[in-house]
Amino acid sequence: MAYITLNRTKLKHNYDFLNSRFEQNNIEWGVVSKLLCGNRTFIEELIKLGTREIHDSRIGNLKVVKSINPDVQTVYIKPPAKKNILKIVKYADVSFNTEYTTMQLLSKEAMRQGKVHKVIIMIEMGDLREGVVGDHLLEFYEQVFELPNLEIVGLGTNLNCLNGVMPSPDKLVQLSLYKELVETKFNKKIPWVSGGTSVTFPLLQRKLLPKGVNHFRIGETLYFGADLFTGGTVEGMQTDVFKLYAQIIELTQKPKTPEGELAENPSGEVFEIRQEDIGKTSYRAIVDIGLLEIAPDFLIPEEKGVTVIGASSDMLVLDLGNSDRNYQVGDIVTFQMKYMGVLGVLNSDYIEKYVVE
């Protein structure tokens, strides 16, 4: 059976790297755990690192955090669905919000549970996902700041999540100015300008981050060392916290091109024959993982010369033609993965999950 590992040592290296940068700049931050899909063992590893704040978009995952350590501050990072209000208040100390009617329900539920629920108001800054339009912010804030049992602790934004709009110093200065405007207008203190995410971290590294931004939510850069501006790696960070291992279940020399009339496969794809491959063969391996767990585009074989050919629901086909290793049936092929690949694998009940040093 295929399995995935989380390397504890490399995760700690990346966490310490980030934590040092944030401490040097007096920035608070939390770890985004949604990639871990609520896996208790992996979430325990996050908490062992010393993180005091964990963010997630699934309330069940925050429930796992609270069951491990109730003192970790939990943040629900999307506007709550009304049917989940009770659970949001129970398991999330903080939530992102953009709708007055939702915040009314949060207020009533927080009163019922005898809690003060914290809120970050998300502001639209151009990527066109969640957020209050800036022109309406003062009117919106005036409606919500007196709701009982709610505390507005921050103004935030998300960029690069839907339409790929990148953060810029100008956009983040504007976010900081919104905070100053609200504080001046209503004589209320807002502790956080939560404009920092993995895609924003390179601005901090390059000393381009406006000083007003004092809160980050980091996921991808922690797990992959990713510099999302360049598509490369942050110098000094580890890229392979996660690895995937799959076993060869068939290994045969076969033609490079299929034979017969071609139609769409179950994924809706039609194979395109390259003229230079006609009449050629290669050693092809089938490994025990498929589209149910991961799309081929998200896989990065560690062995040079191994090429991902394609996948069906439960099997992945590899071309071993240029590999120096003498693979045999039963051998393990190792992969690194892109973010969405790890997400798919960790969301699968069919993949074993282990922590390694």
General description of the model:
Helix content is 28%, strand content 26%. It is elongated. With 357 residues, the protein is an alpha/beta fold. It has two domains: 227 residues, Alpha-Beta Barrel (TIM Barrel), CATH 3.20.20.10; 115 residues, Beta Barrel (Lyase, Ornithine Decarboxylase, Chain A, domain 1). Strand 4, helix 4 and strand 5 form a beta-alpha-beta unit. It is built from ten helices and 19 strands. Helix 4 packs across helix 5 and helix 6 crosses helix 7.
Number of helices: 10
Which CATH architecture of the largest domain is right? Alpha-Beta Barrel
CATH topology of the largest domain: TIM Barrel
CATH class of the largest domain: Alpha Beta
Strand content: 25-35%
Please give the radius of gyration in angstroms. Answer: 24 Å
Q: What count of structural domains? A: 2
* N- and C-termini, Cα separation: 21 Å
The main β sheet shows up as:
9 strands, parallel
Give the low-pLDDT segments.
Answer: none
- The percent of residues in helical segments reads 25-40%
Task: State the total count of DSSP E strands.
Answer: 19
Secondary-structure content class? alpha/beta
